[in-house]
Write a structure and sequence with these properties.
By secondary structure, this protein is of the alpha+beta class. It is 38% helix and 18% strand. The protein has four domains: 27-252, Heat Shock Protein 90 (2-Layer Sandwich), CATH 3.30.565; 258-419, 2-Layer Sandwich (Ribosomal Protein S5, domain 2), CATH 3.30.230.10; 438-567 and 637-665, Rossmann fold (3-Layer(aba) Sandwich), CATH 3.40.50; 667-701, no CATH class. The relative contact order is 0.07.
Length: 701
């Protein structure tokens, strides 16, 4: 019996050569797109544009191109044009097909591996997978090359060629045009965002001096009818910009480079020194370019690039920058008696406060951590940046004593505030924990101790708090009412912030501590739900709490633990049937198209007070209308406190029926600028923003 079972196991578990799958061509990309573009969400979708653009940008970095055009076309297509040398179209000696076909349909094929002979001494696309990956993930791709007096074309679908490369005519132009339409089978949503594309390409224009970048939104335009068309309508167009159409477009061209980029990021800030520090030098075949300026702010903005590829997760070049900055400022401050012995020395956090910096390196052999290039891994970049930047900053401080003093003073304020905050925090948090500090008295905690199941509702005021406490599920839902508006932490340091009773209660309730002792693993709830009133004050309180979360609890946001509750705006009673509407549109849908207008409902009492003589003159239609009106009652909620416990549970707290919006930070740099502008101390930028966006406001008066 045992022998029979052994034979059976061997048969079912057989594992030989036939079980090894071999994916050919670009099939691995379609099977595992996340390995190549990060995700199949909105970030991965835009990554397709960056891959094609980067190929054209590399031509510009090599000195072969000075104009790139990116156009969003109808049918969700994107078209990228450059006036570079054009992808080679002659037959490749190894693949025996056109070099263009090889580049577009083969992984790890491109001109970035050929050393100096290829012209790409510095490039962002060293893996040779960019164009082929975009091709694999597109339902349609067209490559058009203008080269040596000819025009060559090849089309593809899902990475497979439709026909061989062929010459379709003559051309006086030179360059490459790539048009692609992402495959809806791969991407959750195929909708390119104008602001995302403009923001990314603006950075690139700053990084490549003398490069003109045109960005055009032609999604709603057709050259023949004037209406919406399709991407093939542009087959005979080289530079779309030359058509001078009335469509959204923008052009970037900067000669100032990184200095201009720093000034752009600081345009709504108050600099503490007028000169933007700048250095550009090469050491050990690594090009280093750094620009920075301190502003009157508490947060820092560091934008890193490697071979002009934005690295949102930083890398070795940022490590070298931070190390050199801390060392040089400490050395200069102590040497010139600007840092007292009692102060000790600057930490990395001290010298970063209020700093806006751009760090760019260019390497011939570059190593990223992953195809998405979010983090630089080249070790030689760290020492190169530390050397070039450290020496240049030392000279700058010696030659500009007034600027140096401003920088040291800024870092000294941060150092002393850090020590004061540490003392305050120790007395409030550490001491409290040692002495058995209990949870805030206003907190109605939940029974469950499992953080994954726990929810903390932050509500506005004692009235809403009382209702929420009665209506909640005591097992999993905790309630913390806040009295009034919390401190705006964008304008306050940590020591003053911890003096706020409301903020202190929230910090203790969350359990993570704050500052350098923050520990996400100690989070007591995995859902922090902001349930404020649906009015201006409620929106302001919500904004203040989100500012606190963004500045001091960013890992909580990144983990997806913060939500915004959506209480209903209306309670609608038609006869005995009760419904809740969360928007005006839902309200109208519930009332139905045959229902009386809202203004008729609001004047119901006036109709009932009419004289008897007037009532006799009413038509049957009016009588029927008034009967319908008398059966409909609408209550407009202004705050959670207006609801009873049962209503609040049904509409806002019941996990089965409630609506929650998860808070996320998709673009940290843009979010940082918005928080600075809307919550900071500078009034003119905020006033300008409000004025320019006034028509977009949804006012509830």
């Amino acid at each position: 019996m045992i022998k029979k079972e052994e034979k059976k196991i061997k048969k079912e578990g057989s594992y030989g050569a036939d079980q090894i799958s071999v994916l050919e061509g670009l099939e691995p990309v379609r099977r595992r797109p996340g390995m190549y573009i990060g995700s199949t969400g909105i970030d991965g979708l835009h990554h397709l544009v960056w891959e094609i653009f980067d190929n054209s940008r590399d031509e510009a970095m090599g000195g072969f191109c000075d104009h790139i055009e990116v156009t969003m076309l109808p049918d969700n297509s994107v078209r990228v044009v450059d006036n570079g040398r054009g992808i080679p179209v002659d037959v490749h000696s190894k693949t025996k097909v056109s070099a263009l076909e090889t580049v577009m349909t083969t992984l790890h094929a491109g001109g970035k591996f050929g050393g100096d002979d290829s012209g790409y001494k510095v490039s962002g696309g060293l893996h040779g997978v960019g164009a082929s990956v975009v091709n694999a993930l597109s339902i349609y791709t067209k490559a058009e090359v203008h080269k040596d007096g000819g025009k060559y074309v090849q089309e593809y679908s899902q990475g497979k060629k439709k026909a061989s490369v062929k010459k379709v005519g003559s051309s006086k132009s030179h360059g490459t045009i790539i048009t692609f339409r992402p495959d809806e089978e791969i991407f959750k949503q195929v909708k390119f965002d104008w602001d995302t594309i403009v923001g990314h390409l603006r950075q690139q224009a700053y990084l490549v001096k003398g490069l003109r970048i045109d960005i055009i939104d032609a999604r709603e335009w057709n050259p023949i009818t004037g209406g919406k068309g399709k991407s093939s309508d542009y087959d005979d167009v080289f530079w779309f910009k030359e058509l001078e159409l009335e469509v959204p477009s923008t052009t970037f061209y900067f000669e100032g480079g990184l200095v201009s980029l720093v000034r752009f990021y600081n345009k709504i800030e108050k600099p503490i020194h007028s000169t933007v520090f700048y250095v550009e030098r090469e050491v050990d075949d690594v090009g280093v370019e750094v620009a920075f300026q301190y502003v009157d702010n508490f947060s820092s903005t560091i934008i890193p690039f490697a071979n002009n590829i934005h690295n949102p997760e930083g890398g070795t070049h940022i490590t070298g920058f931070k190390t050199a900055l801390t060392r040089v400022l400490n050395t200069y401050g102590k040497k010139n008696n600007l840092i007292k012995e009692a102060d000790g020395g600057f930490t990395g956090d001290d010298v970063l406060e209020g700093l806006t910096a751009v760090v760019s390196v260019k390497l011939r052999e570059i190593q990223f951590e992953g195809q998405t290039k979010a983090k630089l891994g080249s070790t030689e970049a760290q020492s190169a940046v530390a050397t070039v930047f450290g020496e240049a900053l030392t000279s700058f401080l010696e030659e500009n004593p007034d600027e140096a003093k401003s920088m040291i003073s800024k870092s000294l304020l941060a150092l002393r505030a850090r020590k004061a905050a540490k003392a305050a925090k120790d007395s409030i948090l550490r001491k409290g924990a040692l002495e058995g500090m209990t949870l805030p008295g206003k907190l109605a905690d939940c029974q469950v101790k499992d953080a994954e199941s726990g929810e903390l509702f932050i509500v506005e005021g004692d009235s809403a708090g009382g209702t929420a406490k009665m209506g909640r599920d005591r097992k999993t839902q905790a309630i913390l009412p806040l009295r009034g508006k919390i401190l705006n932490v964008e304008r306050a340091r940590l020591d003053r912030m911890l003096g706020s009773e409301q903020i202190k209660n929230l910090v203790i309730a969350m359990g993570t501590s704050i500052g350098d002792t923050f520990d996400l693993s100690k989070m007591r709830y995995h859902k922090i739900i902001l349930a404020t009133d649906a009015d201006v004050d409620g929106a302001h309180i919500r904004t203040l709490i989100l500012t606190l979360m963004y500045r001091y609890f960013r890992p909580v946001l990144d983990a997806g633990y913060v939500y915004i509750a959506q209480p209903p705006l209306f309670k609608i009673k038609i006869g005995k049937e009760i419904s809740y509407a969360y928007t005006d549109e839902e309200r109208d849908k519930i009332l139905g198209k045959d229902a009386p207008k809202l203004e008729d409902l609001l004047t119901e009492s006036a109709n009932e007070e009419g004289s008897g003589e007037e009532n006799e003159e009413e038509t049957e239609e009016e009588n029927a209308k008034n009967k319908r009106v008398s059966k409909i009652h609408i209550q407009r909620y202004k705050g959670l406190g207006e609801m009873n416990a049962e209503e609040l549970w049904e509409t806002t707290m019941d996990p089965v029926r409630r609506i929650l919006k998860q808070v996320s930070v998709t673009d940290a740099e843009e979010a940082n600028k918005v928080f600075d502008m809307l919550m900071g101390s500078e009034v003119p930028p905020r006033k300008s923003f409000i004025t320019s966006h006034a028509k977009m406001a949804n006012l509830d008066i």
